[in-house]
Amino acid sequence: MHESVWYWIGFLLFVAILLALDLGVLNRKAHAVSLKEAAIMSAVWISVALVFGLLVLYLLGTQAAAEYYTAWVLEKSLSVDNLFVFVLIFSFFRVPAQYHHRVLFWGILGAIAMRALLIVVGVSLIQQFSWLLFVFGAFLIYTGIKLGRAGEDDEPDIEKNPILRIVQRFLRVTPEYHGEKFFVRLADGLRYATPLLLVLIVVESTDLVFAVDSIPAVIGISDDAFVIFTSNVMAILGLRALYFLLAGAVDRFHYLKPALAVILAFVGLKMIAEQLFHPREELEGLIIFGSLAFILTVLTVAIIASFVRERRQRLHLSPK
Length: 320
Description:
This protein is about 75% helix and about 0% strand. It has helices spanning about 5-25, 35-60, 60-90, 100-130, 130-150, 160-170, 195-220, 225-235, 240-245, 255-275, 280-315, and strands at about 185, 190-195. The chain has a two-stranded antiparallel sheet. β1 and β2 (about 190-195) form a beta hairpin. The chain starts with a helix and ends with a helix.
């Protein structure tokens, strides 16, 4: 067996330990996560991801580490835009604040499984059919253009979620929440799903849509399945803390969508260009570092511009 199998086993055990500590120790009781707690946990998850990158550097070398950090930053930035949708979902279903963490926790477990499958399938297909990179590249450019043209007020219609409609057709659902339970047995002796299960299903189906965009983007950064998977998982693990930290302010990032549109289009163009011109091996590391620098620059400019716009709006609205 290839030694990289042990890397996979070690990483999965590491993630299992982190999730067990999260749910079994740090968040054993349902509670509304405070801003301070969210900030601390966000710092912890980011630190864990950065330190893991150093392990990738030690085990796999400089280029793999650069690919990991680039893919992690890309996935992290895409996940920020996803937070807005999660806010809409919780608001639509009127989920009590103390149950948000439980839904996101189990949602992340499902997201890890789905992304693992998509990554394995995607990398395997590309290894057999390299021309698919042109398809992925074109898809990312199209997605970038579509995202760039989307208005700030464009919102997903949760009621039209096809998976939600199917579930509601075949499952008995209670009209009210029953604590943290996804299923409950009522006085009639029948087993019912609770609205919390519907929320989880919508979160999972929404993340699947996100993954269809993000996985090709990360494949455009690296063709190493281990790097792709670990960067995705390390970004996803910090998504819950990031949600509680930024949920109330996510709509203030006015220029995030245009920035993500530029980044997706850039990765798509990079993917196609590399297939057309086949850069020399000694240039691959430089290309990865250049991609990381470009992505960080675009995100930084977008964040600063968003804060400047927000400040100008507050000054304009404040009484003189």
